[in-house]
Write a structure and sequence with these properties.
- By secondary structure, this protein is mainly α.
- The chain contains 3 helices and no strands.
Length: 105
């Protein structure tokens, strides 16, 4: 039984390692894209930090909604505004913006 437990632990570590390697690779590729862009490197924070903040707000909104669904069941979470620390207006969630079609130029 102990051998199975350690094998499961090793598998989880390998999966985490593979996931971490993929994340590092994706971040490196993103950094290379930014390096080749027209945006000056000192201005990156003006683009990246607001996007990270916006994504985090949306993630917290989702977490709070999931918790509310556990408590209140299938009731509409918008009926319980006290469960959220802030308001994310309809159509303004990260997923709404991320999957919105790009305007044609």
């Amino acid at each position: 039984m102990t051998a199975n437990t350690s094998q499961k632990g090793n598998g989880a570590r390998r999966t985490r390692s593979a996931g971490l390697a993929e994340l590092k690779s994706a971040l490196w590729d993103a950094a290379n894209t930014l390096r080749g862009s027209a945006v000056d490197r000192t201005d990156w924070k003006g683009y990246i930090l607001p996007l990270l903040f916006f994504k985090r707000i949306s993630d917290v909104w989702d977490e709070e909604t999931a918790e509310a669904q556990e408590i209140y069941g299938d009731a509409d979470p918008s009926l319980f505004p006290e469960i959220h620390r802030f308001v994310v207006p309809e159509g303004c969630h990260w997923n709404d913006v991320r999957y919105a079609p790009s305007p044609s130029h």
